[in-house]
Amino acid sequence: MYKSVYHDINHFEMEPVGDLEINDDEVLLKMQVCGLCGTDIHKAVDKTVQTPITLGHEIAGEIIKAGSSVEGFKAGDRVFLAHHVPCFTCTYCKRGHYSLCPQFKVTNVDPGGFSELIRVPALHVKHTMGKIPDDMNFETGAMVEPLACCLHGFEQIRMHPGDNVLILGSGQIGCLQVQLANHFLADRVIVSDVNPYRLKKAQAVGATDIINAAEDDVIKTVKDLTGGRGADIVIISAGIGALLQDAVNCVARGGTVLVFAPFPKKDIPIPAYRFFEDEISIVGAYSSTPYNYTPALELLKKGVIDVQEMVTHRFPLSELNDAISLAHDTTKEALKVLIVPDEGR
């Protein structure tokens, strides 16, 4: 069994996983699918993590061994998995900010999702692992975690039936958010991007209007589409600082901007008068919480969210760097990229 280890920009090595011993309250998982997340791409392209490290966290696989004290799971079970677990008792957790918990980021699976074999610690077995239904494939199961993140974002906004929603960025997350906005009864779901292929994908999963930001004035077009009001909800789903300015200029009076992508750590000027005069809100959402996984799974089970329409590429684990290069190139016709184990290694 092998893992893909990130050493440097454009430098991944396939290395043996070695012996992964599990405790009585842990499980050993064979990875079947691991989705390539935008944060994985950001970490690899910009080297924002200490190396060597095995990335990946949108995991679906099969349990090959369960510890003697594990309840509810057994060898042969097909499961999805998320990588961080809050403590549920700190000040942040008590206020409902589970992803801000000091324990959250220090918990992880071993060695990471881009590994053919994964040790699932006890906290993850208890709080972030769930069974994939028999009639659901591993690819859909791997989408539970990113969909849960999107649900966490929608928890931060006060969306009403009939709202106009603008999504800045039509990548994999943007396409999930399009479908959620429709599920929560949006009137118009407007999507902007510079990639025509991704805009067509957004339209295919339910966007009512698309804007090519490389050709059209996003702010003017949004105002035209909404009768001059602007969008009640604006979701930033691409890590481009200038989009915050566009979002604040596009949001309607009384509306909300959701920041759902990491920005560079530098100041971004915005028209701050709108907070007082127009009662706009800007909120952020990072990752997911254990309470988002069941709703995400149910939305997938019931076909409310179509993820197969989004999947464009599948790469073997040994070609992870090529997968990241493709997904990072905004000129390519790629949306959701999945990583699968190498056959016959």
TrEMBL record:
It holds the Pfam family ADH_N. Residues 7-339 form the Enoyl reductase (ER) domain. Keywords: Metal-binding, Oxidoreductase, Zinc. Its cofactor is Zn(2+). The keyword rRNA processing does not apply. Belongs to the zinc-containing alcohol dehydrogenase family. PANTHER family: L-THREONINE 3-DEHYDROGENASE (PTHR43401:SF2). This is Zinc-binding dehydrogenase. It comes from Corticicoccus populi.
